[in-house]
Amino acid sequence: MNQNPGSFRDPFGYIYEQNDFIFRTILSPAIKQYEAIRDEGLIQESIEQGFLIESKELTSSTAPAELNEAEYVIKHKKIPFISYPYEWSFYQLKTAALHHLKFELFLLDRGALLRDASAYNIQFVGTKPIFIDLLSIAPYNEGDYWLGHRQFCEQFLNPLLLRSLKGITHFSWYRGNLEGISAIDLYKVMSLKDKLSWKLFLHVSMQARLNSSVISKPDEAEAKAKVRKPLPKSAYKALVNQLYSWIEKLEPKDKSKTVWGDYAKHNTYLDDEVKEKHEVIFNFSNQNKPTKLIDLGCNSGDYSITALQGGAASVIGYDFDSNAIDIAFKRSRAQQLPFLPLHLDAANPSPNQGWMQTERQGFKERAKADAVIALAFIHHLAIGKNIPLNQAIQWITDIAPSGLIEFVPKDDETVCHMLALREDIFVDYTEENFIKVLSEKNKILRATQVSLSGRKIFEFSRIY
Amino acid sequence: MFLSLSNLKFLVFTLGILSYASPAFAYLDPGTGSMLLQGLIAGIAVFTSVLSIYWQKVKSFFVKQKTDISTGTNKDIDT
Predict the structure, then answer these.
(1) Which of A314, A376, A451, A454 minimizes the number of CB atoms within 10 Å of its CB?
(2) Where are the domains of chain B?
(3) A217 at the B interface (CB within 8 A)?
(4) Does B1 touch chain A if contact means CB atoms closer than 8 Å?
């Protein structure tokens, strides 16, 4: 049984993986806390209310023998797909933030609280957020501070504000600093107008100011912080409530601008061609019924939804365009679909990173599926990013044993635009070569022309 | 556009509190700033709750006075 490499920070317990299950150990320092919340029925109630992942306490006879040193062992079902906040769309991060705050309020009303506010403690099943760290729940004592406030601001609030105030997406910054965005850093990009907002003043400017005073006069700050004037519960709740109603109203500043966002409306296809394309995807999905399908270049989710209608049990979509995945997420959430759109720069996917470079897994390690579709995608890699065609094909076909890849020829309007101002150095970018490379490790089952310009969708199946 | 007096006060206060030097590396717990902020909030919360107790007293004094006038008596309603 392997210990999850991301589980090392909290000495209260660790995570182990086996097949489709997660085993969480609860070690001696955490017994009192765990028993208190369990005996209050809080774990059960949190699960029933949809806040917490399903958790079952095992007995010494049912717990895996290797974990017998633990005081308790909890069994969870594995989340079907792990994603990280630096891959989440604005609305996904917002949904996670609101889930966290709602859970905190729910617990406060029942004499408990959350010990931290890590965004990594929230995972998604489809677009439904779920809290996965049972050991973050602890009993509340009168006067307690909101210990997760700083972390909440860094991992949820500040990345959302960056987009909401400045129109800057959080992906790169968050991926670069896995702890999120500090108040001191965000403060530096705020305008005078931003600084005059009362809420920004309280949660960003004041925190930045106080953090700076901690750094310049550590002894004084430490002495002051140690006094710990008790925080009335009403003030604790007011802080959480204020953040909730604020975040609920946050919207991206650059909402209307998009690279491919309105692609579905203004694309270079004719309506019949779009219909044809949907049919190819529907039939593929219907014949293969994949449990998990990955849609590379999912845009606002049109074809992901067709794949679901065809019979795919779940779809993970990826797109580079932040507005497209914002729309896709909202759409999927409104219809409660098992479709999760995430951010991906295919030329620079999420790496293995964090402590020991194993704490957070890379794209390659996680993006494994039964089927992959890459429609109107490969030319963005091959021509947009100068990636050799054979490497682009290899990368896509490594994701799943079967799938669809659309080849967009050079005569197509989109590719013409891409080459309009640059020299055509892509001698290998031909349909003939595409077929040759794809056939090296795969069987081509069919090719369907889907546009007058000669776009073709190739269905492949890996040869073992 | 003119700033009201309260906005102006807030502006001056904000500008004052926000002009500070760049930080170096921190050796204290990174949550200390948030703890200090909550300490301030705790102080304000206590202050406002004390204030609200006094305010209630003042308010009830006037409410009683008013009731007294309307009923035409000088007696306290509770007695």
Answers:
(1) A454
(2) 41-79
(3) no
(4) no
CATH fold of A271-462 reads Rossmann fold (3.40.50)
Specify the pLDDT at position B66: 55
Q: What is the spatial distance between Cα A67 and Cα A378, in angstroms, rounded to a whole number? A: 46
Tell me, yes or no, if A191 comes closer than 8 A to chain B by beta carbon: no
What is the nearest CA distance from B63 to chain A, expressed in angstroms?
27
Nearest to A324 by CA among A364, A355, A297: A297
Query: By the CB < 8 Å criterion, does A241 face chain B?
Result: no
What integer is the mean pLDDT of A239-247?
Answer: 96
Q: CA A438, A441, A442, A443 torsion: positive or negative? A: positive
Option in B17, B42, B45 nearest A209 (CB): B17
pLDDT value for B75:
43
Verify whether the Cβ–Cβ distance B36 to A210 is below 8 Å. yes
Contact A227 B49 (CB under 8 A): no
Q: Taking CA atoms, what residue in A is nearest to B24?
A: A215
Of the pLDDT bands very low, low, confident and very high (cuts 50, 70, 90), residue A244 is very high
Quickly name the fold that domain A1-78 has.
Phosphorylase Kinase; domain 1 (3.30.200)
Q: Where are the domains positioned within chain A? A: 1-78, 81-254, 271-462
Determine the pLDDT at residue A277. Answer: 95
The confidence score (pLDDT) of residue B1 equals 41
Note whether ipTM > 0.95 here.
Answer: no
Neighbours of A301 (CB within 10 A): 28
Report DSSP letters for A400-414, one per residue. Answer: -SEEEEEE--TTSHH
pLDDT at A267 over 70: no
Name every chain B residue with its beta carbon within 8 A of the beta carbon of A201: 14
pLDDT digits (tens, 9 = 90+) for A136-194: 999 999 999 999 999 999 999 999 999 999 999 999 999 999 999 999 999 999 999 99
In this complex, which of A149, A183, A212 lies closest to B38 when CB atoms are compared? A149
Q: Measure CB to CB from residue B30 to each of A150, A195, A216 and give the nearest one.
A: A150
Q: Render A332-400 in DSSP notation, one character per residue.
A: HHHTT-SEEEEE--TTSPPPSBSGGGTSB--HHHH---SEEEESS-HHHHHTTS---HHHHHHHHHTT-
A392 Cα distance to chain centroid: 24
Residue A392 confidence (pLDDT): 97
